[in-house]
Write a sequence for this structure.
């Protein structure tokens, strides 16, 4: 078990990052654009996505709405009466996840863009927190299961450890939560701390291959 401080303190390099939500661009204040976790995994074929079309774009937008609703819910600022039926159903599924696992979110870290100052990549972990006293990075999914999901959550664990004071020596567990669009119980996949650390190597290998390809194009 670990103790999460009431006040989260970020490493000094955290302040250098800017994030353009509309274009989903991570940029340092000096102008450098950083590759994202999802962009790297997609480029190297580890995380598979279908072709871009209006249906895929809508599903992506729904996912954004679901994530935002859950973040507001955890911050205590969500007016649930404003939610459409579809988003409300995903929220109900999330509430069932919390009940099943006794999950306690660390709201100061929910949906916070981060970057790694050694490996120089960026991403936005969904919802870190505690399950049975163990620090856990939860990745919320409103779509289908993909083969690279566990690699993705391991990359978010690496980001958090590099970004938050006091968590640099604590490698988290992972939890992938496949929310049910009808409001039912979600499918939950736990990823052990050892497996998170092992999968970190897969992500970093993809990062280096992606970087080599970009510089040798």
């Amino acid at each position: 078990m670990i103790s999460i401080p009431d006040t989260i303190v970020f490493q000094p390099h955290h302040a250098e990052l800017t994030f353009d939500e509309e274009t989903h661009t991570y940029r340092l204040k000096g102008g450098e654009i950083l590759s994202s976790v999802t962009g790297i995994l997609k480029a190297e074929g580890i995380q598979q996505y279908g072709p871009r079309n209006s249906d895929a774009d809508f599903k992506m937008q729904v996912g954004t709405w679901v994530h935002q609703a859950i973040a507001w819910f955890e911050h205590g600022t969500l007016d649930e009466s404003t939610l459409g039926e579809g988003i409300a159903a995903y929220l109900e599924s999330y509430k069932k996840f919390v009940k099943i696992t006794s999950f306690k979110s660390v709201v100061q870290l929910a949906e916070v863009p981060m970057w790694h100052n050694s490996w120089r990549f960026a991403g936005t972990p969904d919802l870190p927190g505690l399950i049975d006293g163990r620090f856990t990075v939860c990745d919320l999914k409103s779509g289908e299961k993909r083969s690279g999901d566990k690699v993705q959550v391991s990359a978010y664990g690496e980001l958090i450890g590099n970004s938050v004071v006091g968590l640099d020596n604590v490698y988290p567990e992972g939890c992938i939560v496949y929310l049910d669009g009808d409001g039912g119980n979600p499918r939950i996949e736990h990823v052990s701390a050892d497996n998170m650390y092992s999968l970190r190597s897969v992500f970093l290998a993809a990062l280096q291959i992606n970087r080599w390809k970009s510089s040798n194009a």
In short: The longest strand covers residues 134-141. Residues 80 and 124 are 24 Å apart (CA to CA). Strands lie at 17-20, 25-28, 33-36, 104-105, 114-115, 121-123, 127-131, 134-141, 173-178, 187-191.
